[in-house]
Specification:
globular; mainly alpha
């Protein structure tokens, strides 16, 4: 029996969304410019990162939307 292919880490997937319009694209572009962004992180790692950088509420909403999109892959 074959195992399903490994899922791309959420952080990498989010960075790849830089061409998207809307909040997810804006979040991706902001993170792309940040060397401290946890590129291999899961959604909880990214939430912790947002807390650490004292992000605004809109960033959390965009992250929630992004997580739903990623989970549907």
């Amino acid at each position: 029996m074959r195992e399903p292919p490994a899922r791309q880490p959420f952080g990498q997937w989010l960075l790849a969304q830089k061409e998207r319009k809307g909040w997810i694209g804006e979040l991706s572009r902001a993170f792309k410019a940040d060397r401290n962004f946890p590129r291999l992180g899961d959604p909880d790692d990214i939430r912790k990162y947002l807390r650490d950088v004292r992000a605004e509420g809109d960033a959390y909403e965009a992250l929630d939307d992004a997580e739903l999109d990623w989970a549907c892959l």
